[in-house]
Design brief:
Helix content is 46%, strand content 17%. It is α/β, with parallel strands linked by helices. Strands 1, 2, 3, 4, 5, 6, 7, 8 and 9 form a 9-stranded mixed β-sheet that branches. It is globular, with a radius of gyration of 20 Å. The chain contains 13 helices and 9 strands. The protein folds into 2 domains: 210 residues, Spore Coat Polysaccharide Biosynthesis Protein SpsA, Chain A (Alpha-Beta Complex), CATH 3.90.550; 108 residues, no CATH class.
Length: 342
């Protein structure tokens, strides 16, 4: 590897996205960067996605090196799929692509430039726009990222912090040091956090990916906003996930301490960030309590704890006007104006 070049492995994962797989693959094959390794892995699709991918690759004659594979059965999660696929790649930088999204032609070049400018950068993520089933623009996605006064390590230590997986790239060393992902935890929650323990994490304020919101991707989102009871169940399930993510953070802190990674001297403070964020998540359960009095008291407690202006507004809507809040969420799904992950 020369000083001015990084070997890149592009990983495209597909599953039951037959109408969009060709466009997703074309956006990988059209990357205007140095020849890279491309691994397309289909998660046992049942709708013809794999056949579309295989046909597109057979007709490709460019300089990128492309391999295609298909699992015999579904992996169960993107993290489980990645655990199997990453060891099959050889690049120094791993770039994630999703089977129903479209990346702009200069995405990989922009990402690798960020790595080359700063050897301390271990992961890079970017902004993204939203498109519908027909590829029509539906606004920009909301990308939470560290405030100017914060650091990537403190930001990603929170149990609710993530970097959208569709936009993520990271150095292979992050995987080599920490090992496989927990299949029950989303990769975009774990990988940027692990990268932040090894060095810097860089955000590129450009929409480098067009994330598709379509019937299949919106179904689960829309279902949780149909009723207060359904939203309550979803939120309590999310708090259980936060507890699992907290335990995962603690295990990664232990690894960083044992291996004396760059953030080792800061670990006690980072552990506190993780504990405090879990406490906030657990306290937020009161926002979906059937009792209005309990919801109002919960809102006041979260407000006094120093929530951001965005969180205060969202918590107030849920505590005082829950039905209106759910109606708004249903109406704005996939439009680009939808709120964040609460």
């Amino acid at each position: 590897m020369s000083a001015a070049r990084l070997e890149v492995s592009a990983i495209l994962l597909t599953y039951n996205c037959v109408d969009f797989a060709a466009a997703a693959l074309e956006s990988v094959l059209s990357q205007d960067c140095e020849p890279m390794e491309i691994l397309v892995s289909d998660d046992a699709s049942s709708d013809g996605t794999f056949e579309v991918i295989r046909r597109e690759v057979e007709n490709y004659s460019g300089s990128h090196r492309v391999r295609v594979r298909r699992r015999g059965s579904t992996s169960g999660s993107k993290s489980a799929h990645l655990n199997e696929v990453i060891p099959m790649t050889s690049g120094h930088v791993l770039v994630s692509f999703d089977g129903d999204d479209v990346s702009v032609p200069g995405r990989v070049r922009t990402l690798t430039d960020a790595f080359l400018r700063n050897p301390e950068v271990q992961a890079v993520y970017s902004g993204y726009s939203l498109i519908d089933e027909k590829g029509r623009h539906r606004g920009s996605g909301r990308v939470p990222h560290p405030d100017p006064g914060s650091t990537p390590a403190r930001w990603f230590a929170r149990v609710d912090a993530f970097a959208a997986g569709a936009t993520l790239a990271l150095r292979r060393e992050v995987v080599d040091v920490f090992g496989p992902l927990d299949p029950r935890i989303h990769e975009d929650v774990v990988l940027p956090f692990r990268a932040s323990l090894m060095g810097d994490v860089s955000f590129i304020d450009e929409d480098l990916v067009k994330v598709r919101r379509w019937g299949g991707s919106l179904t689960a989102d829309r279902a949780r906003f149909q009723s207060l009871a359904g939203y309550r169940t979803w939120m309590l399930t999310g708090i259980d996930k936060a507890r699992r993510q907290f335990r995962s953070r603690l295990a990664d802190f232990d690894t960083a301490e044992r291996l004396m990674l760059p953030r080792a001297p800061d670990l006690e403070g980072l552990r506190k960030v993780a504990r405090d964020s879990l406490a906030e998540a657990e306290a937020s359960a009161g926002l979906v309590d059937p009792s209005p009095w309990t919801r109002w008291r919960c809102f006041l407690r979260l407000w006094r704890s120093g929530s951001s202006a965005y969180e205060i507004l969202q918590n107030a809507a849920l505590a005082f006007f829950p039905r209106l809040y759910l109606f708004y969420k249903r109406k704005t799904l996939g439009t680009g104006s939808e709120p964040g992950p609460l």
